[in-house]
C-alpha cells in the first residue's frame, strides 16, 4: 500500500500531478483516501485489481488491470494432481486450453462486478476432478 503520508508529500511536491500508477492491487486502497484528503482529482491506475477495488473503479477513481490470477494456482493443482494420481507429466508451460484472460476495469464496466470470480473459474476443474479423484465435501 502507498503510505498516505508519502502520497500526500508526492501530491504537495507535484501540484500538477493528475495520475498515479501503482504496481499492485493495494495501490488504489492506499492512494485514494490520501487523494480525497488532498482535495485533488487524481486518477489511480493499477495492476492486479481485486474484488475490493472494483468499487473504486466504479466510482471513477481508479482504472484497474484485472486478470484470472487464481487460475495459475488452480492449474498448478491440476497438474500436480494428475502427476501424483496418474503419473502424467507436469506441463512445462501453461497448456493453451487454459489461456489467461485479462480486462481493463474502469467506471464504464465496473458495475458488472469482479470479472473473474474464483468459484466460476474453479467449477470446470472441480467437475473434472470429481470424475478422477475422491473430493472432500463442499
Describe the structure.
The protein is α/β, with parallel strands linked by helices. Helix content is 43%, strand content 13%. The chain has a single domain, classed as Rossmann fold, CATH 3.40.50.2300. The protein contains five helices and four strands, in the order H-E-H-E-H-E-H-E-H. Strands 1-2-3-4 form a four-stranded mixed β-sheet. Helix 2 links the parallel strand 1 and strand 2. Helix 1 (4-13) crosses helix 2 and helix 4 (69-86) packs parallel to helix 5 (118-132). The chain starts with a helix and ends in a 6-residue tail after the last helix.
Q: What are the salient characteristics of this protein?
A:
Rossmann fold, 138 residues, elongated, 43% helix, alpha/beta
Topology, element by element:
Blueprint: H1 4-13, E1 19-22, H2 27-38, E2 43-46, H3 54-58, E3 62-67, H4 69-86, E4 102-105, H5 118-132
Parallel strand pairs: 1-2, 2-3
Antiparallel strand pairs: 3-4
Helix pairs in contact: 1-2, 4-5
